[in-house]
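Hello Y.,

Per our agreement to keep a running log of every chain we model this quarter, I'm adding this entry. I've kept the format consistent with earlier entries: sequence first, then predicted structure.
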Amino acid sequence: MSLRLLREQPTPPVAFLSRDQNNTIAGGVGIVVVSLVGLTLLSRWMIRICRPNEMLVVTGSRSNQGSQGFKGYRVVANGGWTFVKPVLETARRMDVTLQPVLVEVKNAYSNGGTPLNIQAIANVKVSTDPDVRNNAIERFLGRDPREIIQVAQENLEGNLRSVLAQLTPEEVNEDRLRFAEQIAKDVGDDLRRLGLQLDTLKIQSVSDDVDYLNSISRRRVAQIVRDAEIAEAEAIGQAERV
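Predicted structure for the entry above:
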């Protein structure tokens, strides 16, 4: 009996939304979607992420640069990020990757007056050191990287000539590592003033047009042969005496 009564009870009516209600819901969903898209685009426009191989320079507002004082820009480095105010601020990127610099000098006079030809290769980059990077920003921001290479090359060549004038051809040719270290030491302060950093410097070749280095090599070979012959003769003499 109870089952029959349950079956005979009327089914409750299904509630349907009116057209106006459907339009209202659709409009609300559309507004939410448009708002999310707008916020995403605005965030992508305002947020700037700095890659590890660059510095981000945001101009348009003053910032405290520590020992450098207040500047009309702020710097983001080492993969950081920042908000950029639309219209009021501008973000520009500055490459800090290593740049190979070929250094060549010809007929540069060494100590003693012998002209030498030196070829070296250096790796130079824009410094990210907070105490140095502002020098690079104020000199090279927005400039072609080739201009940075040219400036570094001219400074390296000048310092190479200066160090070379203090050393004899024998010292340059025999201890190229010491020669390179002395150049790197002397050029370091000049590059820091430019906001640059020298990572490595290697002397690839040392030569001359007057055959001085070759004559030194021949003399040394002859001396080694002579010393060997003298030692051999002394050994034979001692053996005969025994």
